[in-house]
Amino acid sequence: MSTIYIDTHCHLDLLKEIDKNPTQEDRLPIKSISVTNAPFLFKPNTILFAQSKNIRISLGLHPELVSTYHDQIDIFKQMLPLTKYVGEVGLDGSIEHRGNYMLQKKVFEEILVAAGAEDNKILTVHSRNAANETIELIHKHLKNTNCQVIFHWFSGNINELRSALKYGFYFSFNHRMVTSKKGQHLIAEIPKDAVLTESDAPFTFNNKIKNRLDSIKFSVKEGSKLYNIQEEEFKSVIYNNFKTMLLK
């Protein structure tokens, strides 16, 4: 059984006072993908976590911030060869972001084309209120590549989830998703070989769960119930899925 937890989507640079003690998160028994929200944040993060063994830094351009940072797409492309990990990227069709949806789509497609050209990237993807188009754009641009895709905190419907599964995509869930009825329904539809855990720290923290380790442990505990297997077995399932994804 694995002694290591997996966090495929967190924002470590946004944790309180992380700059004063960047090794604190690396000492946890968690293999992590720490996403960034804009290209200019990537290099400072690689410097901040340069001594880390368990933290991988991801290059991102968050859909909610595209209107502000869309002009950094060229910087994104320049930095892309420096990392295997891409995120947070994607589309957001929420009311407050619908006004720049076409710009989001343009930027996301540029990201997908660039990632596909490199052929070996792992993407962690945002798809709130835009699941169907996000899925189809990824399939269009990455279907003939070795890139791997993780849908982070998926909130689409069952048919959209099944469509993404048909394309071989992964799904990561967090402690907030696993405690909602819709989230539980979605998670239960994900095959064991396509499921991963995330914390989305610090955005998911509350009075009961205030750190990543508690978040991931809770997700493993509650997720194991949905799959009707022992907690330690589910922990190993997640670890093995992560390991398999890295080797693809």
Poorly predicted residue ranges: none
Rounded mean pLDDT is: 97
Oligomer: single chain
State the CATH class. Alpha Beta
Distance between the termini: 22 Å
Task: Indicate the structural class.
Answer: alpha/beta
Domain module tally? 1
Strand order of the largest sheet: 4-5-6-7-8
CATH architectural label: Alpha-Beta Barrel
Strand share of the residues? 5-15%
Considering the protein shown, what is the CATH homologous superfamily? Metal-dependent hydrolases
Order of helical and strand elements: EHEHEHHEHEHEHEHEHH
Q: What does the main sheet amount to?
A: 5 strands, parallel
Number of strands: 8
CATH topology: TIM Barrel
Rg of Cα set: 17 Å
Percentage of residues in helical conformation: 40-55%
Counting DSSP H or I runs of 4 or more residues, the number of helices is 10
Shape designation: globular
InterPro entries: DNase_TatD-rel_CS, Metal_Hydrolase, QatD, TatD-like
Binding site for a divalent metal cation 1: 9, 11, 88, 200
Protein name: TatD DNase family protein
Pfam family, one: TatD_DNase
Task: Spell out the blueprint of helices and strands.
Elements: E1 5-10, H1 23-26, E2 30-34, H2 42-48, E3 55-57, H3 66-69, H4 73-79, E4 85-90, H5 101-118, E5 122-126, H6 131-142, E6 148-152, H7 158-166, E7 170-173, H8 181-189, E8 195-197, H9 212-226, H10 231-247
Parallel strand pairs: 1-2, 2-3, 4-5, 5-6, 6-7, 7-8
Helix pairs in contact: 5-6, 6-7, 9-10
